[in-house]
């Protein structure tokens, strides 16, 4: 990761997002034992959706490091209230992240913003579960259909990503990370949704696409953990 530092993409970060990255990157390099696999599966150009499991507040930090190491500057969905917070709001605005007004009629506007980002050939990161997994063993929960809708409407490749170790790095309820924790971030090949592109975008098709995406994420996680896929038990 030290060798990657001078090659990280800088264009399109925005000033405050770039500052946040430059502050956090050395912490990740020196205090997190990162193992990154599958960076070649993230296209270097063009629109892409990275769909990841979600375990900890540390996930955006390690996943941003992975995306940058893969040559992409990631955009995130995040709750709209962050745009009103001091300093953090500057980072969110400058980084062209995607505000979500959760629980309101405006929530659907986030998909419009995401579509515009993809039309601009951006890398957009999505946590299909919508929140931290509440599975006691850390397996992904059922995904929501937003990422499937985006992928099918825009025909954007969805790269599944599994993270493991972030819950130990920064457990829920803790404010200080546990240094030198090993964190795995693994990306697989894009999920094949091509047979669904021309079908009517109803619940059945969205559920099928979401299931394929979550199955791919879970299979990667099972491989990292060297455990059977929970769906095969």
Approximate helicity band: 25-40%
Please describe the biggest sheet, giving its number of strands, its sense, and whether it closes into a barrel. Answer: 7 strands, mixed
Poorly predicted ranges (pLDDT <50, ≥5 residues)?
none
In total, the number of strands is: 7
Quaternary organisation: single chain
Strand order of the largest sheet: 1-7-6-2-5-3-4
* Count of DSSP-assigned helices: 7
Derived structural class: alpha/beta
What's the average pLDDT? 93
Radius of gyration: 17 Å
Strand content: 15-25%
Shape: globular
Order of helices and strands: HEEHEHEHEHEHEH
Cα end-to-end separation? 37 Å
Description:
The protein is α/β, with parallel strands linked by helices and 233 residues long. The chain has 7 helices and 7 strands; from the N terminus they run αββαβαβαβαβαβα. It has helices spanning 15-31, 59-69, 88-94, 109-119, 146-154, 166-169, 203-225; strands at residues 32-37, 48-52, 74-79, 98-100, 123-126, 158-164, 181-187. Strands 1-7-6-2-5-3-4 form a 7-stranded mixed β-sheet, sandwiched between helices. Strand 3 (74-79), helix 3 (88-94) and strand 4 (98-100) form a beta-alpha-beta unit. Helix 1 crosses helix 3 (88-94). The termini are far apart.
């Amino acid at each position: 990761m030290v060798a990657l530092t001078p090659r990280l993409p800088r264009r399109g970060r925005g000033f405050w997002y770039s500052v946040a990255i430059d502050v956090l990157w050395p912490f990740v390099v020196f205090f997190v034992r990162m193992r990154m696999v599958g960076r070649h599966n993230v296209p270097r150009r063009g629109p892409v959706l990275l769909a990841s499991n979600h375990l900890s507040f540390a996930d955006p930090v390690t996943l941003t490091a992975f995306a940058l190491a893969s040559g992409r500057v990631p955009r995130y969905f995040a709750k709209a209230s962050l745009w009103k917070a001091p300093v953090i709001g500057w980072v969110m605005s400058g980084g062209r992240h995607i505000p979500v007004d959760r629980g309101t009629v405006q929530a659907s506007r986030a998909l419009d913003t995401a579509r515009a980002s993809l039309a601009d050939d951006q890398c957009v990161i999505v946590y299909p579960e919508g929140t931290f997994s509440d599975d006691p063993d850390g397996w992904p929960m059922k995904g929501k259909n937003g990422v499937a809708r985006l992928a099918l409407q825009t025909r954007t490749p969805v790269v599944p990503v599994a993270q493991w170790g972030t819950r130990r790095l920064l457990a829920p309820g803790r404010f200080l990370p546990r240094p030198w924790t090993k964190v795995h971030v693994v990306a697989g090949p894009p999920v094949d949704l091509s047979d669904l592109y021309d079908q009517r975008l109803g619940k059945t098709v969205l559920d099928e696409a979401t299931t394929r995406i979550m199955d791919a994420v879970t299979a990667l996680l099972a491989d990292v953990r060297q455990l059977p896929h929970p769906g095969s038990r």
